[in-house]
Automatic annotation (TrEMBL):
Name this polypeptide is given: UDP-N-acetylmuramoyl-tripeptide--D-alanyl-D-alanine ligase
Compartments, record wording: Cytoplasm
UniProt GO BP: cell division; cell wall organization; peptidoglycan biosynthetic process; regulation of cell shape
Domain Mur ligase N-terminal catalytic as annotated: residue spans: 25-91
Length: 435
């Protein structure tokens, strides 16, 4: 057994890949292990994944990858120097082995919605594999790549980041052939060190693509994107005004976005003008991959958002925009502006704190509170420590330090058009239990 164990310790990545090909999937969570999985024991500051290797094998995993020899369980335990690094290296090897076309996308807002739209459109013609949910970090990207098979013709890989060099690192893992940046906004300011840091960090995708002579998709009405890609040749973009790019015309967003291209009108199920560019991205990527515009129209019009991202929920005479998956100053601003433009007699905004803003937290929460009170919104409810500290002199605003305090003082909302938006940690979807 010792000899076999030592062999596994010095196993090359191509040999490990051969074992992976005989497995059904990769897992990093024993609660989700299925038969014939390859389990990677990942560890963090507060947990040691190696402790669960035997549990994974007992639940049907074919192999368990560990990086601590004290937890060798059987001949099916494979010791490596670093489980996480091995997972990433295996993903890159698998991506190269398949040779699948990879589209990567990042940005401050709209990544997941755009990824879902692109996948919906491309699925009209191709066998696709896309990031599940928002598994878009140093673990999620490898898992997405390893979920691809020889049948996958196009992979759509979402990339998230909260500090510089992270997108560059993810590009080295995924090695994308194409890329798109949704926008540059005030997200993760604490990690990026300000909006200029956000632009620099997200643009690492552009840097990878241009340095490797790959293709770039862009919003040609975004001055930052145009500036960054001014002289680059391999680009394909959309614009409302620039004749050099594929023309798409915004029509309306009351509440759902509709737009026109090549005399064809597309009526989406996405609310808010801020979703227009997300729809445009899916449209031009579909066009680039030779999907007929009528098929793109069909795909877009069949797509319905879920998972607390711009969902429309009806409760008697109350219409709810459930957008509680995440929030930052940029996305909060456009969501409030969208609410104010809705054709409704009574409009309510329930807003939760925005996280990861660092030293900008106080000013950004004050800015959003001031914006909300300046718009055509009838009732504003602010929940969270930062919003509680905002200085507001308006009778339409109610402030609560915690969700529990809001819940205890909740006044029924009826016959209203309601926006619910806050960072993930605020879990504002709990408001639905009250309405």
């Amino acid at each position: 057994m010792l000899g076999l164990f030592l062999y596994f310790y010095f196993m090359k990545i191509d040999d490990l890949h051969q074992l992976f090909l005989d497995c059904s999937a990769v897992s990093t969570d024993t609660r989700k292990v299925n038969d014939n999985n390859m389990f990677f024991a990942l560890s963090g500051e507060n947990f040691n994944g190696n402790k669960f290797a035997q549990d994974a094998l007992d639940k049907g995993a074919k192999y368990a990858i560990i990086d601590d020899p004290d937890f060798k369980a059987s001949d099916n335990t494979i010791l490596v120097e670093n489980s996480l690094k091995t997972l990433q290296e295996l993903a890159t090897y698998h991506r190269t082995y398949l040779g699948t076309k990879i589209i990567s996308l990042t940005g401050s807002n709209g990544k997941t919605t755009t990824k879902e739209l692109i996948n919906t459109v491309l699925s009209k013609k191709y066998n696709t594999t896309a990031t599940i949910g928002n598994l878009n970090n140093h673990i999620g990207v490898p898992l997405t790549l390893l979920s691809m098979t020889k049948d996958t013709e196009i992979g759509i890989v979402e990339m998230g980041a909260n500090h510089k060099k992270e997108i560059a690192f993810l590009c080295d893992i995924a090695k994308p052939d194409f890329g798109y940046i949704t926008n540059f906004g005030k997200a993760h300011l604490e990690g990026f060190g300000g909006i200029e840091g956000v632009i620099e960090g997200k643009s690492e995708l552009y840097h990878y693509l241009t340095q490797n002579d790959k293709h770039v998709f862009l919003n040609a009405d975004d001055s930052i994107q145009i500036e960054k890609l001014n002289t680059y040749v391999k680009k394909f973009g959309f614009s409302q005004t620039n004749p050099e790019y594929f023309k798409i015309e915004f029509l309306d967003a009351n509440p759902f976005v509709s737009y026109k291209s090549e005399a064809i009108t597309i009526q989406s199920n996405l609310i808010g003008a801020y979703n227009f560019t997300n729809l445009c991205a899916a449209t031009i990527i579909g066009k680039y991959f030779n999907i007929d515009l009528l098929d793109i129209k069909d795909a877009i019009e069949r797509y319905t958002p879920n998972n607390n991202r711009s969902q429309i929920i009806k409760r008697d005479n109350t219409t709810i925009i459930m957008d509680a998956y995440n929030a930052n100053p940029s996305s909060m601003e456009v969501a409030l502006q969208n609410l104010s433009k809705q054709d409704a007699e009574n409009k309510t905004a329930i807003l939760g704190d925005m996280f990861e803003l660092g030293t900008s937290a106080k000013s950004e929460h004050q800015n959003i509170a001031d914006l909300a009170t300046s718009l055509a919104i009838d009732t504003i409810i602010l929940v969270g420590e930062n919003f509680y500290k905002a200085e507001i002199k308006s009778p339409i605003v109610k402030q609560y330090k915690t969700f529990e305090s809001f819940k205890d003082n909740y006044t029924p909302i009826i016959d209203s058009y309601v926006l619910i938006k806050g960072s993930r940690g605020m879990a504002l979807e709990r408001v639905l239990e009250l309405i």
